[in-house]
Amino acid sequence: MTAASLNHRDLGLISGRLKRPLPITPFSDGCGVVDAIGPGVTEVEPGERVVSLFFQDWEAGAPDKEKLASALAYPLPGVGREYAILAERGLARAPDFLTDQEAATLPCAALTAWQALMDLGRVRPGATVVLLGTGGVSIFALQFALAAGCRTIITSSSDSKLAECRRLGAHETINYRSNPDWAAEVVRLTGAGADLVVEVGGAGTLEQSVRAVKIGGEVMVVGALTGRGDYNIAQIITTCVTLRGLFVGSREMFSSMCRAIEMHKIRPVIDRVYPWSEASTALRAMERGEHFGKIVLDFSV
Question: Which of 61, 103, 177, 283 is the least buried, fewest Cβ under 10 Å from its Cβ?
Fold first, then answer.
């Protein structure tokens, strides 16, 4: 392994919040070089640079129980180690123009954003997409939506982070701390509401996400950073909104995403890089929400 990127799921596993048995080998997103291959392996060769896929057994098609049981970090050992034994179909090549650190950010956050927008959402040029916060999934979604010709609206509690979003190309930004009814602001900006929201907050933001989309719009639920809670289901019925849950994606989706990244020369946004020996410091930084984009661990130092 040469690099690994952090996700909020890692915090949940390490802290015990996700209530999975310890010990675990953490981290699910990594980049490395093939050192050796087993009998019958044909798709990779020693010396090749590859990235780990979040699901080791979801090659293509719809998800099922078996595919979703093959996630790295839990239940399978993750990539937070010097050498990792991974399935042939649990590896993929990243675009050559990306560094190892950049490539390590793709398997989870980037693919989640890709499935939400392109594979399931099937957004078209001119569609309005709302993104919540400035973590890895939302920033990748911003980059993909812009490449697809969409109008983008992104939220944050930090004006400096919103300024950085505008520098990346965001069309509209909303500070949800100074404007807590951000759904109303989305409707004001769009007239009828957005076409799609990438929902990373969960129970604490779902009501506003549903209010932010137009009648018949879509809310892609990809995270639960604000925890769990009750929700008024009547709001979905009366607005005819599609509420869709999704969980990262398949190897086939990853390959499609990488072709788009290559074509548009999209570079992952990395907030900071820590030596692997400072993983605990990196995790605390993620927990405080200090980052913009991704946090990466470097295994080469």
Answer: 61
